[in-house]
Design brief:
This protein is an alpha/beta fold. The protein contains eleven helices and twelve strands. Helix 8 runs parallel beside helix 9. Bound molecules: spermidine.
Length: 291
C-alpha cells in the first residue's frame, strides 16, 4: 500500500489515539484517553505531567500517579479539609503539608475561623504548574492568609517552632519525595507541633490495594495519638476508587465533638453533615486494618 493510501485510511482520531495508564498493580490500573499533553517536565524531585483527558478533564500526574483531575478533585479536597475543620471548634492556624496543587488551601479558606494557612510543599514546580494549568484549584495561593514554604515536610516538621490547631497531610503516595511523610518519626513530630487540642488528618491510601501499609500507618497513629479513626471516600481516579484518611486527635472526637458544618454547604459538592458521620462507618474488610 502506498503511503498516501495509508494516510487516507488513518483518521485524525487514530493519529491522536494516546492513552495514559497508571498501573496500580502489575496487571491492573486505570487507563484514560488523552486529548492533549499540556505539560511534561522533570523537577528536582519527580516527573510532572498535565494531560487533558476526555472523561476527567485536565489531570495532574506526579511520579506516574494521578494526583488531581478536574472532574473529581473536589471529593478528596473537601474530605481532607472539612472533616477536621468542622470538628475543631476554632481552627485558627492550619498547616498543609504537601498540597502544592492548592485544592486543600481552597477548601481551608472557606472556614472563616482560619486566620493563617501555611503550606509546606517540597516541589516549587508543582505549584507553578498548577497555577498555570489549574487556576480554579490553585487560586487560594494568592490569599493574604496563605504562606507557601518550599521545604521538605518532614524537615520542616522536625525544625519548626510554630504550633498549629490543625495539620493536614495532603501528600502524594509513599514513593519518592513523599515517602518520609508516612513514617512514625514524622507523625511524632506532627503531634509535638499540634496545640494541646490539635487535630491531624492524613491521606492514607487505598484500603483495597495498600493493606499492609495502612495497617502499619495506623499502628503508628495509635502509638502516638489518643484518638484515631479512619474515614473513607469514593474517588474515581485513585487506585481502586476507594480512598482512606486518618483522623488523629489529641482531644476532639470526630463524631462526638462534631456539631455540624460551619461552611455553607452550597459551596460543597461531596461533603455534608451526613457524609461526615457516614464516612467513619467502615466495611469489615477495612475495619480489620485499623482495629
Ligand atoms: N494515588 C493518588 C494519591 C494522591 C493523594 N494526594 C493527592 C493530592 C491532591 N491535593
Amino acid at each position: 500500500m502506498e503511503l498516501n493510501e495509508i494516510a487516507r485510511e488513518v483518521s485524525m482520531e487514530d493519529l491522536w489515539n494516546i492513552w495514559f495508564s497508571e498501573l496500580h498493580r502489575k496487571s491492573a490500573g486505570l487507563t484514560v484517553k488523552i486529548k492533549d499533553i499540556l505539560f511534561s517536565g522533570k523537577s528536582d524531585f519527580q516527573r510532572i505531567e498535565v494531560f487533558d483527558t476526555e472523561v476527567f478533564g485536565k489531570v495532574l500526574v506526579l511520579y506516574g500517579s494521578i494526583m488531581i483531575s478536574e472532574r473529581d478533585e473536589f471529593i478528596y479536597h473537601e474530605m481532607i479539609t472539612h472533616v477536621p475543620l468542622n470538628v475543631h471548634p476554632a481552627p485558627e492556624s492550619v498547616l498543609v503539608v504537601g498540597g502544592g496543587d492548592g485544592g486543600t488551601v481552597r477548601e481551608v479558606l472557606k472556614h472563616k475561623d482560619v486566620k493563617k494557612v501555611k503550606v509546606v510543599e517540597i516541589d516549587r514546580m508543582v505549584v507553578e504548574v498548577c497555577k498555570r494549568f489549574f487556576p480554579e484549584i490553585s487560586g487560594g495561593f494568592d490569599d493574604p492568609k496563605v504562606e507557601i514554604v518550599y521545604n521538605d515536610g518532614a524537615r520542616f516538621m522536625a525544625e519548626t517552632g510554630e504550633r498549629f490547631d490543625v495539620v493536614i497531610i495532603d501528600s502524594s503516595d509513599p514513593v519518592g519525595p513523599a515517602e518520609v511523610l508516612f513514617q512514625r518519626q514524622f507523625y511524632e513530630n506532627v503531634y509535638r507541633k499540634l496545640k494541646e487540642d490539635g487535630i491531624m488528618v492524613a491521606q492514607t491510601e487505598s484500603p483495597f490495594y495498600d493493606r499492609e501499609a495502612i495497617s502499619k500507618i495506623y499502628r503508628s497513629f495509635k502509638q502516638i495519638f489518643p484518638i484515631v479513626s479512619m474515614y473513607i471516600a469514593s474517588i474515581p481516579t485513585y487506585p481502586s476508587g476507594l480512598w482512606s484518611f486518618g483522623f488523629c486527635s489529641k482531644r476532639f472526637h470526630p463524631i462526638h465533638d462534631f456539631r455540624g458544618t460551619k461552611v455553607d454547604c452550597a459551596s460543597l459538592r461531596y461533603y455534608n453533615p451526613d457524609v461526615h458521620v457516614a464516612s467513619f462507618k467502615l466495611p469489615n474488610f477495612i475495619k480489620e486494618l485499623v482495629e
